[in-house]
Every structure is written in structure tokens, then in C-alpha cells.
Amino acid sequence: EKITCANQMKSLDDFACETIPPFCSNANDLRVTGRFRAIWNEAVLINESPAKVFNENTLILFEILDFSKELLAQKKHELLDHDGYYRVAWAYLRPHGCAGNHQGTNKLQLYRYKFRARDYHRENKDGSVLHVAPAVYFDFVWPTKTKYSGYLTVTLSEMDPPKVEDVTQPPKNVFQRELGLRNNQLSKSRMRRDIAEEEDTDESKRKKKQLLLRRRFAGEECILPEKVLFKLPSERLGCFRISFSPNGRLLAAACTRENSRTVVKVFEMEQGELIVTLKGHRNLVHDMAWDSESEYLLTAGSDYALNLWRMPPETSAEEIDEDESERICFMTTADHPGYVYCCRFFQEKYRENRKLLISGCFDGLVRFWMMEMEINGVRGVMLQELPLEIEKVHRPKEESTNLLDHRHPNAMVLDENDRLYIGDSLGYVHVWDVEVRHGQLTINRLHKIKGKEILGDPINSLNLHPPDNKLLVVHSRDNFIRTIDPKQKGEVIQRYFGSKSSKAMVRSVVSPDGSYLLSGSEDGRPHLWWFTSGAPIGTEFFELSVKGLVSDVAWNNEYNMIAVCTFSAEFPILVYVHEKQDIFEEMGTRKKVKRNLLEEEKDDEEVLSREENEEDVDLKPVSYTHLRAHETPEHLVCRLLLEKKK
């Protein structure tokens, strides 16, 4: 706990606080209320964004501790923890668990303690308490748990942050601002806050609220859009490839001009404004890939080039001139002997200032590149180049005249276990394991998927089905999209009909929640299916029908947003969005939450049993409650402490 008293709250903005400051609830004396269970019925405000709280890595731990005069008199009693409380039971809650978001009222099962808190109490050399993780965390990670006869009711919901209040006394929370003795004596934190409030006009507040209504929080299902948000400008021949950045803020579009030169336009998704136009490709761009931090963009083209770009900082408000884009954003290029059809970033940087790139070329080789970011530029080194198949005899190039029998990588995708799936031009899926140890790259060929239905047909795109990535979606050039199980030798799980793809490299995408499958088509309109059943969904809401080719589609990971592009003369890039009526649209309104609380209060009146009588100790009723919060390196942890005020 960095902050332990209210007097220090006024300096909260002066440093980076890594923990949540402690906060308390009002008194709850069972002897006064005459009840056999504690009912606080109070709201505790956690000043964090919902996206951060409703995260799969967030864990909330509750502890119920009892106050006893008899036990406090024996400070070294084995039943007391290092703070002098008797630990009754504990519970846990994942705001975003396996069943989705636990927003609303939750009944938490209570458990008995297994470990003594004093065994995990550590102190620094100066005698201060060293808070690494609460002792209850060790009970949570223990595989076997003993239930306690009772439960704890907790309600999680969202709300608008309260306005900042000016006070003359020391502030009690972060939403109070202490005034100086004189008007000209303002703290640095208040001056910074005042400047920010002046810049934060009504228009910017409206934009922030609008973005929040488009946001898809962790665990929420994807909602199909119902209106066109942006019509982004393309080029003379249209747009062939589009890709959203992982953070959902940017959209990259590879647009081709009349002379076949292709530029990559990068738009921001708040207002649909063009940030930068990347020049550098002399022909069609076949694939684009973002790194995990949305900082770098990789483009693969028919001009035998693999280009690496760095996005301009978010602080740059004006559009970067097209002629200046190469000087500002261009990092390096990796030359190839033929068309570059696919590319990917290795998922994480395995060494500081270095990135591993993967590319697939028409010559049938998959290349691994190391890009080292230096002060004077980027130094690129090709680590390995491997053919899709190991052939004992290599024929001369002049003998290889039949292009239909030529094997080359067409699409690739990486999973979270660094397993690389490569789809080739003959309908095979090659599975490789990419491993980096101590700076050394190791490639292991695992197996090859030979699906009878797709043999001989080029593979346009590969997608992994979220969230577990166990199924592989194969879009082949035979007017079919199939879901296969890589572990079952390519067994077809589901087929999707309707999309036309027999001549061009049309691509498809799976929604971030895994519920839908969206695809482009040669018939000039997008196609949509339910992923599990394969049943088609009407796409009238797209209001899109062109004579050209719907070449690519993209689904935003962070917002309820879809982008569709067409390789047709000067047709714009369409971005569709779903905007919630209010922030509680998908999870219930505030009135519903309040009504549920009242119903739960009536239904649960007799459910919670009395505390079991302890054989050794006659415990007193609980009188006061305190809620303190801690943050560990891996989890956000809260403790509910019950004590009596002297």
C-alpha cells in the first residue's frame, strides 16, 4: 500500500501509483441491528475503467474477519493474523470468468482457511510490513478448498465518475481537491488538472462518450452493426487489403492507383481521419500484419518487397504529408526473389529492440528475418529460409513450366503457442513449431494437413477460432470455407456455402468472440454465417452490392465495428458500427440492477446460516467493516476486513 492515510491523498497525482489506495465502509454492528448476518448495502467506487476491471487477469479476493476482545488480548495467539483479526472465511470473484462477465449480483461461495496468515507475514529491515501478496491468495491457488456454510453477495456495475469537488480540509478521496490557504497557492497536480479541464471541451467529452458506446468490453458478445459510420476514400482501382490494429484504434488499407502503384492509408477510428499515406510499393499489396503493440505494420507486395513501417506517435494531430511518410514511417525493406503473398510478426519481442518477421514467397520458401532497431536505422538479417517440403531432388527452373503444380505459401497464421500454420497453393496446411531459446531460432516441422476436399485448390486465408484457437478456418479457392480440427488430421467440422471465390484471393475473418464468420466474395457483396451452425445471416444491413470484387473484410477486436473493402473503381472503404443506446444496454439498466438487488435481499433473508460455533473460541459478533485493496504483480486483489473501532 503506497498510500495509507487520507492526508497523503492530495499528492496522488504527483507520482505513478501502482496500487489502489485503501478505503472503508460505514459501521455495521450486529448487536445494534439485531440481525444474524451483516448487510452493508453500500457502494464502493473503484476508480478504474470497466475494460481494466472486467479482464481475464483480474481477480478479487474477499476476507471476512471477526473482532474479539479475548483474542486481541493474546496478540500472539495462533488464530489471529498479523493485524490482530480472527479470519472467518474467504471468497473470490473473477469479474471476467469462463462464463463471461459477472456484472450484476453475484453469490460467492465462502471457503475455510487452510494456511495461517502469520506464516506469510514478511517485514522489511526497517520493520515495515512487506506487502507482496495477501495471505489469502495462497488459499486461492491451493487446488483443494473446503466450503464454509454461507456465501457473500456482491454486485458489480458501472457508473459515471463523480465530479471533482474543491475542499479546504485534507481530501478523503481522489475526487476531492484541496485548496491552498490563498488562491495563488495551488498544487502542481491541481494546475495540471485545470489545464486538462480547459482543453477537455464539451465536444471532446461527447466524442469520448460516443467511443464508449461503440466499445466491446472483455467477455461481451459481438453485436452486428446496423449503420455506416465512415466512408473512407480509396484509390482509382480500389482497395485490396484492410486490417485493424490490435488496439482497434487504426485501420490500414492497401489502395491501388491507376499505374498499379499501391499506397497504404492509415485511418484513425475515432473520427475516420487519414493519419498517414505510406508510399513504397510499386505493385499490389497481398498481405498486412500488425505487431501486438499496434506500433509497427508489415506489408507484403507483388513488387518482391516486404516493408516494415512504424506508426507516427498519437500526439501528432495533423496528417503527415504523403511525400514525408517514407522519411518518418519507413523502417526497412526485405527483398525477395518473387511475389510476397503472406507475412506475420512473431508474437513477442524475444530480445530488446529486436523483432522477428516471417514471410512467404512465390519461390516456395518461408523466410525468417531478424530486424534490429538501432539509433541510425534498422539492420535486417535473414535467419533462415525453409521450403514447404523437403525434396530430395531439385529440378532446374527451366523444367518447372507448369504453374498449376507449383507449391508456394499463400497464407499463414500464428497461435499463442508459437505454432505456425501455413496454407499453400495446392491445398495443404503445413504445421510448424517456432521456438526461440537464448537468441537461437529453431523450426520444427510437426505435420501436414491433407484435407481431401481442398487438395488442389489454393488456400486464400487461414483463421484461428477464438478464444481457445483450437479450430482452424480454411478459406480455399473452390467457393467453400471450412472449419477443420488440426489435431484430427484435418477433419471437417463445418462448411460454409454462398461466398464466391474461384479466381481471386478473397479473404474471410472470424468475429473476436467466435460467433460469426464474415467473408468477401467475387459476386460483389459480403457474406455472413453463424460460426457453429453454418447457417447464413442476411447481409441487407451492409447495403453493399458492386460489380467488382469484395476482396477483404476486417472485424475490430475492441469495438463493435466491421470494415469492408472492394477492388472496384474508386469505391470507398465502408466501416460499419453498432452504438449502444447507453452503457447499460447489453447488461441491464440501472433500474434493473437496483430491482435485482431488492429481490435478492428478500430471497436471501433466510439463506445465509449463522456462523458455526467454534469448539475452542466463543467469538463476538462483527461490529465494523473496512475494505482495503492491494495489487500483486499478477492480480488485482481486494480484502474485506471486519474490525471494531475502539
End-to-end Cα distance = 23 Å
Helix content range: 10-25%
Radius of gyration: 30 Å
Q: In percent, how much strand structure appears in the residues?
A: 35-45%
Total DSSP E strands: 39
The average pLDDT value, as a whole number, equals: 78
* Strands ordered across the widest β-sheet: 10-37-36-35
The largest sheet is: 4 strands, antiparallel
Provide a descriptive summary of the structure in words.
This protein is globular. It contains eight helices and 39 strands. The two termini are 23 Å apart. The model is unreliable at 1-16, 181-186, 392-401, 585-591 and 604-646 (pLDDT under 50). A hairpin with a 5-residue loop joins strand 13 (262-268) and strand 14 (274-281). The protein is 10% helix and 38% strand. It is mainly β and 646 residues long.
